[in-house]
Amino acid sequence: MRRSPPQPRRSDKSRRTVSIVATGSYVPERILTNRELEQIVDTTDEWIRTRTGIRERRIAAPDEATSDMATKAALAAMKQAAVKAEEIDLIIVATVTPDMFFPATACWVQKKLGAVGAACFDVSAACSGYLYAMEIAQQFISTHVYNVVLIIGADKLSSIVNWSDRNTCVLFGDGAGAAILRNRGASHGVVATHMGSDGEFAEILFMPGGGSRYPITSENIGQQLNTIKMQGKETYKQAVTAMSDAADRALEAAGLRYDDIACVIPHQANMRIIEAIAHRMNLPMEKFYVNLEKYGNTSAAAVAIALDEAHRSGRFKIGDYILLVVFGGGLTWASSVIQW
Ligand code: UT7
């Protein structure tokens, strides 16, 4: 049985004053449809739709790096919050496809924004990275270290996909989502978060090459080690269990029940995974915000883009409780309850 570290009870009122004051997102223009993928690998639109729910995904331009997408999402959030670049104290980018090993993608975003006063770093927690970044931001703000924190989930998975592997290449896409967190002094905000990881399963979803274990050599590239490897079925199984468990724990820490939740924003990997967790939560699918048919799995960006779209389309209102729940390579998982 999976063990998780004990999580502190997080329903104290002081914590609720850290709010998401704005969200933003960006997806590249280029749409890659399932039909087009039929020309690239041995697959069908029907297989992809019925097994995953995905119809199309966005693909970044060759000269469009993760920080370019991240900056566009950040600018949208900053505009909404009327926050100037100089006011940002901390920039955290969650990504597994950084522009380069170093400097951090967050530093490139800082340069593009002109956020001269910010501290910057990246978080590597794969698809769970955005909620990890949110929790870090929450901690920095509630301890009064920083006031204004920009978090971004951004990934250019098209740059690490093996385009001859039908098991993976049909699943992923590119994009970015951002949020600005600050202490708004209101009695609502991030109520509770649960995070967990299990390195025992590191090799069911990973990209082995390019780092210090298997550096960039022509031999390693020849073996496609610089692309995503995934054991789909095992990942699926782990995703359902870990996401349901994480959501239970976040809700418990918040002192709430599923009935109290107005909108669930899950990681956008597979429609069947979302339906399975909805079933476990005993919640109708109408409560779930799903956009994976348009974007596929965009890793750290997925829940960030979904939150922005759900927010802008009025899926919840001020005072509503929303539940975010994510899962990804590591394995990693997390869930946050937010009172909007
Ligand atoms: O973001 C991190 C989290 N990621 C996830 O949560 C992804 C989790 N996994 C999944 O979503 C699913 O496991 C997949 C969508 C990846 C695969 O669905 P599945 O129902 O588990 O299929 P499978 O891997 O068991 O494959 C079933 C069959 C196989 O053929 P055989 O061996 O039964 O003849 C595959 O070769 O489907 C075949 N297949 C395909 N056929 C057409 C695999 N990919 C494709 C494809 N087109 N693209």
Shape: globular
Instruction: Give the SSE order as H and E letters.
Output: EEHHEHEHEHEHEEEHEHEHHHEE
Strand arrangement in the largest pleated sheet: 1-7-6-4-5
Largest sheet, in brief, is: 5 strands, mixed
Query: What level of helicity do the residues show?
Result: 25-40%
Mean pLDDT: 95
Low-confidence stretches: none
Decide which structural class fits the backbone. Answer: alpha/beta
Total strand segments: 13
Taken together, the total number of domains comes to 2
Total DSSP helices: 11
CATH homologous group name of the largest domain? Thiolase/Chalcone synthase
- The whole-angstrom Rg is 19 Å
Strand content: 15-25%
CATH hierarchy: architecture of the largest domain: 3-Layer(aba) Sandwich
Distance between the termini: 34 Å
Verbal overview:
The chain has 340 residues and is α/β, with parallel strands linked by helices. It has two domains: 168 residues, Thiolase/Chalcone synthase (Peroxisomal Thiolase, Chain A, domain 1); 150 residues, Thiolase/Chalcone synthase (Peroxisomal Thiolase, Chain A, domain 1, 3-Layer(aba) Sandwich). It is 33% helix and 23% strand. It has eleven helices and 13 strands. The strands form four sheets. It has a five-stranded mixed β-sheet, sandwiched between helices. The protein is globular, with a radius of gyration of 19 Å. The model has no long low-confidence stretch (mean pLDDT 95). The site of oxa(dethia)-CoA has 21 residues, from helix 2, helix 6, helix 8 and strand 12. Oxa(dethia)-CoA binds next to helix 2, helix 6, helix 8 and strand 12.
